[in-house]
Amino acid sequence: MPGAPDREVPIPVRRFQGTMLAMDPAFVPPGFVTRCENWVPALTLVLSKRLGSAPWQRLPEPGRVDPIVYCSGSDGTRYLYCVANDQLYVSINDAPITTVTNGAFAAGPTEDLRYGAAAVGDTLYVGNDVDPIKQIPLGGAAVDLVPLALLDDTGQVPTPIPDELARVLAGTYSFRWATYNASTQRWTKVGPVRTVTTAGSGRQRLGFQAPTVALGTGELYHLFLAGVDQEIEGAHDQTPAGLPASGGADQFALWDDPAVESAVVPIPSTVVRYGAHLVAHRGRLWGAGGLDATARRVWATNVLVPGLEQSLFNQGLFFPAGAVTPDLGDPVTALAVATLSSTNRSPTSPLGIMTEQSTWLYFGDPLDDPTAQLVQVSDEVGCIGDRTVASTPLGVLFCGKRSVYLLTPQQAEPKDVGWPIEPAIRQIPVPERTRCWAIYHRGFYKLALVPPGGDEPTQEWWLDLRRGLADPPSWWGPHTTPGYSAATRAPNHPAEEDRAWAAQDSSVAFFVLLDQVDRYTDPVGPRSGGQWNVAHWNVDQWAQEVAQPIVSRLTTADMDGGAPLTPKIAKRARVVANVFESTSLGITVTADHTYGVAGTLNVPMASGDVWETAVWDSASWAMQTWILSEFECPVPEPRGRLFSSTLTHVDPTSCDLRDFELRVQPSSRETR
Q: Residue 80 in contact with residue 93, Cβ under 8 Å?
């Protein structure tokens, strides 16, 4: 009758809090949902359709891209490096991607080599488990950090020659020959240490004949000679201009004491390091890798002073033999600087070291530091792969075998912040764990997982950190995406704030720009096309883009209106939405996870009027507003104690959700 109380009981869902998988749907806290696929919270906390991606560039050939590294030089130049098919590529200032000179890695004994990369100053280092680490001056050619090869100095002849004008002191002189490549500006080989002794009486000069072995392109011989009765470590270059291979005549003569102002003799080192995991910390390059017991230790270089890296390497001091941690018992899976902020440059912070089931903190410096110590903070929590490590304003986040954890500099167990999505993490196929990755982008820790039965990370979970870490943590997902193999970001890109790239393997490997404004599709293949105007004065290109619309789907928790045992009848579902184009939402209302009904929630665009009366400039205006849309459950209505609803949006247009409400009516008849 008119004025009678409404028998329908509203069950609202507003101020969406996140996705909860770790609880039974009946126990999920208010505001949480059980699925939030391709919906993310805007800054105003309303749910918005996830933004799509835009094609960017492609590689010259197909291949799985991993990793991608963004870095900027001290002069402001931007570099985007990546590895695909064991080849290093670079894009400079967003120019087309090109191969890096000498950037090819030898094919390894394993099919899926893991590559580590880190920049120290204006130098990038890239390595894996089997190949020598490559040193790349930003924008330059790659150089392998390998011990100097032994030089075959056949044909070299030292000869004391009587000469009353010479002032060479009598005694024994140590010397060795070396070859220098002018194009790479590196020493390539060094010969054995040899000696020559002058006569005890009379004056003599020392004549040296260079080796007769043919040289490679761009190479010359250099003679390193120490002072009288001195060790070879004190030798200096006596032929700065270099010498060609000897033709049989003396090519250099020493008339006085050896020169000491020239280059110091290269000292070959026997220390070999591998870098499947690399990180820059305290002015050093830290790494781990290898296929044997070396994978269970972390090593460090000497302090790398910009511009003096080559001098360190020439002296055999680049990889100090003693700069290595004790055996950790298991292969290292990740390295990270354990800070309380998003920076990676915190010299006072410890270095986080993770295996699959343990976490360690290394305090201090690896050389000549009596306070240095290695502390194990967990024997249960580890990291499945270094690609899941990301520095955030709250500390370092990484994915373990069961959850996501927060690592801080304190000597404490890593904090479990991924427990709401623990079931999804546990379902990652064990052989594919290393393919998961994460980045910190626009306030979210974005974690890409390989779903059950898959082999590429096509499922993403986003942790909202824009207002700190909530309790429970605010996770959103699972977002369904193409199988991106790797991603990286540029926080201060001139074309876009916090730009992010991802790579995808198709007929050719190609890159996309993530989260692009007003795009609600994801490319699933590279752009293809050709010339559509054949006149040379008017040649143009056409391109066809293969993309799939983003389908957004939200499933509520079980809704009981505070009366879990009371039978009810679902009557209506209502939603408040905001759109820029008329669209619709599919809705399904299910009772007790059995019987359900489906329908449509139409969300029209607000109507407007003509704002310019001139025909040539006619347009319509409309006021954007929130629209209430309602769905009435058809007969027979769902009857049960608990109800869940699923909202689906398939159109490639924007759609924001603010409120959802299910209206039920208590029933006196029990359900069965």
A: no
Within 10 A of 61 (CB to CB), how many other CB atoms are there? 11
CA 502/CA 68 separation, integer angstroms: 8
Nearest CA to 636 out of 668, 596, 669 is that of: 596
Going from the first residue of the chain to its last (672 residues), give the mean pLDDT of each consecutive group of 10, the final group possibly shorter.
64 91 92 95 93 92 90 95 94 96 77 85 93 93 87 91 86 93 85 89 86 92 92 91 84 84 85 91 93 92 77 73 92 91 68 96 90 94 96 95 94 94 97 96 97 95 95 96 95 94 86 96 73 54 74 95 91 93 95 93 76 57 80 93 96 94 85 55
Residue where the block lists tokens 């809705």: 587
Name the amino acid, one letter, at 298: V
Token readout for 360 is 């360690």
How far apart CA 39 and CA 649 sit, in angstroms, is: 10
pLDDT value at residue 3: 43
The count of residues in the chain is: 672
> Rounded CA gap, 486 and 387, in Å?
8
Tell me which residue of 648, 516, 637, 597 sits closest to 54, measured CA to CA. Answer: 516
CB 207 within 8 A of CB 161: yes
Tokens, residue 468: 């700190």
φ/ψ of residue 425, rounded to 5: -70, -40
- Torsion over CA of 211, 216, 217 and 223, rounded to 10 degrees? -30
Q: What's the angle, vertex CA 456, arms to CA 287 and CA 448, rounded to 5? A: 70
Alpha carbon distance 441, 142 (integer Å): 30
Strand order in the sheet with 87-92: 65-72, 78-84, 87-92, 98-104
User: Which residues, other chains included, contact 442 with Cβ-Cβ below 8 Å and sequence gap of 6+?
Assistant: 498, 500, 515
> Taking Cα atoms as reference points, which of 186, 174, 168 lies closest to residue 223?
174
One-character DSSP codes across 633-651: PPSSPPEES-EEEEEEE-S
Distance from first CA to last CA of the chain, Å, rounded?
31
- Cβ neighbours of residue 643 closer than 8 Å, sequence gap 6 or more: 11, 558, 559, 560, 568, 570, 589, 590, 591, 662, 664
3-class secondary structure per residue, 236-282: EECCCCCECCCCCCCCEEECCCCCCCCCECCCCCCCCCCCCEEEEEC
- Return phi, psi of residue 293, to 5°: -65, -20
Q: Would the pTM of this model clear 0.85, i.e. be above it?
A: yes
pLDDT for the residue numbered 165: 83
